[in-house]
Amino acid sequence: MNADDFELGAEFAAARDETDPLAHLADRFYDPDDEWYVDGNSLGLLSEEAEDALDRAVSEWKDLAIRGWTDADPPWFHYGERLGDRLAPLVGAEPEEVVVANSTTVNIHTLIGTFYDRAEGSKIVVDELDFPTDHYAIRAQLRQRGVDPDEALTVVESRDGRTIETEDVIGALDDDTAIAFLPSVLYRSGQLLDIEAITEAAHDRGVLAGFDLAHSVGVVPHDLSAVGVDFAVWCSYKYLNAGPGAIAGLYVNENHFDARPALAGWWGHDKETQFEMNPTYTPADDAGAYQIGTIPILSAAPLAGSLQIFEETSIEAVREKSLRLTDYLIFLVDERLPDCEVGTPREPDRRGGHVAVEHPEAYRVSEALKERGVVVDFRPPNVVRVCPAPLYTSYEDVWEVVEQLRQVVDNREYEQFEPRGGGVT
Question: Which domains does the chain have, with CATH numbers?
Answer without folding.
Answer: 3-30+314-416 (3.90.1150.10), 52-312 (3.40.640.10)
